[in-house]
Automatic annotation (TrEMBL):
Keywords: Repeat. NCBIfam families: PPR. InterPro entries: PPR_rpt (IPR002885), TPR-like_helical_dom_sf (IPR011990). This is Pentatricopeptide repeat-containing protein. The keyword Lipoprotein does not apply. Belongs to the PPR family. P subfamily. Signal peptide: none annotated.
């Protein structure tokens, strides 16, 4: 204990001392060490000799420093714990010089110290130096220590390479080794190799435990191999290894991500039968899955069940439900859940507030959003960048630019730095008001403050410039974006195409459109892009070209909308000789979509025809109605009606 304190004082105060001059009587022991400690504290900073060196020099003379005693281990443990690796190396060097015996336990302590300091390569190096320098033979214990450090540092490839080389040199793996290897393989997506390692365990006399099974199940679930993961559940029980809540949570999470809530619920029942009580993670996973499927009522019911089972909902639980309600356009209901959350003594975090504020603004409840903002401030919750950005974006959408600018200024004054989304919202607000110059000033301010613009920022800038007829400036922004290596998204492409078409440069717009088709999925044209091209071609009386492009659009799986129908109806009636009412054109379009099982798209076209008093053919109408009225869909619609009547 005395040495422990002494080493800690050395680390904290960087003590240096002159060599001790007290008695060197052979009977002197730890009593003399107390005098030594006192002497050291009094003579602080008076010598350049490190404390560890002084300990080695003085303690043997006092009869306290014997080979292999607890004093030596205590020094190693403390230096490793404090991260003082320089002093630790000096201790090792002096031990080697004095030919002291090294134990594997000492090296494991030092390796763990490197792991704690996030220095995994130092731990690997020390493992190899054990034999080469210090003549201490490593066992599977020190091997597992280093392997665990590498896995914890997410250096999975390095861990597997280290494992392979050490096994080749004669290290015999045990259960912990296999668990770490399976985890590393699953983390880098090599689930097949993880299964091979799992099956190879018996050859080394190891039986997988619940951790092995759970890790492998998690890897399989993330690869979408849910059925194989569930089959492992049966296998582990046959082998006498009983699942724990973590095992079930892994499988439930996999099923929820897949959207298979029915099987997830059955698994919870199975969990209860096995004597495993659902945990917070179980309920949160199920609630998240239900929210993803849009089944908010069931999610709320599950929340009540969670409380009744004496499992306390946490911030994740409430946040998941509130976020789900906001995504369904039910921000008001989300605000009620927030009130319930606060009534139960739970304080929402900034992300819950940001989701609600954003949702309330989008649904037109700006007053409620501002009340929530005020309530958040009064509760003592300090808004971060995400909350400020949601508020500023909402105010810009609501046309309240002055308030948005005031909050932006207040945000900066409080030291909360805006991000790319914040600047994009302000720019969009100014562009929508026709204040192009102010929007460009925001862009310059963003670059001045060191916030790098992303694809969304460029899209807002390009769209705003094109909307305000500044195609030349938009092209400069486009070149700047490409020069910075930022890939344009569908919005940026569509905006540039529209800018060219509005300027009568339809062929230039088509070149951009064809370039867009060659890009990845994030930049593929949607129905908005197609409508821009259709409109531009039809203005130049190139209707046949527009129809060819419409056929290509259908082949690419993109369905026309009401705008598409109106563009062709208008131009077929005005620019075709003789004029056409468009009935046959739309009827054929609806039939083609119906034959391709694209029922929603076909029904939208039928809806447009009926609104325009263009009666579709009886056969077309019958086919579309039959597709819409499948038994399951009708049953679901009837159930929904009954629910609304009696709930």
């Amino acid at each position: 204990m005395l040495v422990r304190n002494l080493v800690r004082k050395h680390q904290r105060w960087k003590l240096f001392s002159k060599p001790c001059k007290f008695s060197q009587h052979p009977c002197c022991s730890f009593t003399s060490v107390n005098v030594f400690v006192s002497n050291t504290c009094e003579n602080e900073h008076q010598s350049e000799t490190p404390l560890a060196e002084e300990m080695f020099r003085s303690c043997p003379k006092m009869g306290t420093f014997k080979q292999g005693d607890l004093t030596l281990n205590s020094m190693i443990e403390n230096y490793a714990d404090l991260g003082d690796f320089e002093s630790l190396e000096k201790v090792l060097g002096r031990m080697k010089l004095e030919q002291r015996a090294f134990s594997e336990r000492q090296f494991i302590v030092m390796m763990k110290g490197y792991g704690k300091a996030h220095l995994p390569e130092k731990a690997v190096d020390l493992f190899h130096r054990m034999v080469r320098v210090f003549k201490c033979r490593p066992s599977v214990r020190s091997f597992n220590t280093v392997l665990n450090i590498l896995v914890n540092e997410r250096m999975y490839d390095r861990a597997l390479l280290f494992h392979s080389r050490c096994v080749q040199k004669g290290i015999s793996p045990n259960l912990l080794t296999f668990n770490l290897v399976v985890k590393a393989l699953c983390k880098i997506g090599l689930v097949g190799e993880a299964i091979e390692a799992f099956r190879d365990m018996s050859c080394h006399g190891c039986s997988p435990d619940v951790f092995t099974y759970s890790t492998l199940m998690d890897g399989l679930c993330k690869e979408g191999r849910i059925d194989e993961a569930i089959s492992l559940l049966d296998e582990m029980q046959i082998e006498g290894c009983f699942p724990n809540p973590v095992t079930f949570n892994v499988l439930i999470n996999g099923l929820c991500r897949k959207g298979d809530m029915a099987r997830a619920s059955k698994l919870v029942d199975n969990m209860l039968l096995k004597g495993c009580s659902p945990t917070e993670v179980t309920y949160n996973t199920l609630i998240h899955g239900l929210c993803l499927k849009g089944k908010l009522e069931k999610a709320v019911d599950l929340l009540d069940k969670m409380v009744s089972n004496k499992c306390v909902p946490n911030d994740v639980t409430y946040g998941t439900i509130i976020n789900g309600l906001v995504k369904q356009g039910r921000a008001i209901d989300g605000a009620r859940v927030l009130s319930s959350m606060e009534a139960k003594g739970r304080r929402p975090n900034e992300f819950v507030y940001s989701a609600l504020i954003s949702g309330l603004f989008k649904e037109g409840h700006s007053e409620e959003a501002m009340k929530l903002w005020q309530a958040m401030l009064e509760s003592g919750c300090k808004p971060n960048t995400v909350v400020y950005s949601a508020l500023i974006d909402g105010l810009c959408q609501d046309g309240k630019l002055d308030e948005a600018v005031n909050h932006f200024t207040g945000m900066m004054n409080k030291g909360v730095l805006p991000n790319a989304f914040t600047y994009s919202s302000l720019m969009r607000g100014f562009f929508n008001k026709g204040c192009t110059d102010k929007a460009i000033l925001v862009w310059k301010d963003m670059e001045k403050n060191g916030c790098s613009p992303n694809a969304v920022c460029y899209s807002v800038l390009i769209h705003g410039l094109c909307e305000n007829g500044k195609l030349k400036e938009a092209m400069m922004a486009w070149k700047n974006m490409l020069g910075r290596g930022c890939k344009p998204d569908a919005v940026a492409y569509s905006s540039m195409i529209q800018g060219h078409c509005n300027a009568g440069l339809v062929d230039d717009g088509l070149r951009l459109f064809n370039e867009m088709l060659c890009e990845d999925s994030d930049s593929q044209p949607d129905v908005v892009t197609y409508n821009i091209i259709f409109n531009g071609l039809c203005k130049l009386d190139r209707i046949s070209h527009a129809i060819d492009l419409l056929n290509s659009m259908l082949d690419r799986g993109c369905d026309p909308d009401i705008v598409t129908c109106n563009i062709f109806l208008k131009n077929l009636g005005e620019k075709v000789n003789p004029p056409q009412d468009g009935r046959d054109f739309l009827d054929e379009l609806a039939l083609r979509l119906s034959k391709r099982q694209r029922t929603i798209g076909a029904s939208k076209i039928i809806e447009v025809m009926l609104q325009k008093y263009l009666c579709p053919r009886a056969s077309t109408l019958e086919k579309v109605i039959q597709d819409l009225c499948k038994h399951k869909k009708v049953r679901a619609a009837i159930d929904e009606c009954w629910k609304e009547l009696f709930c």
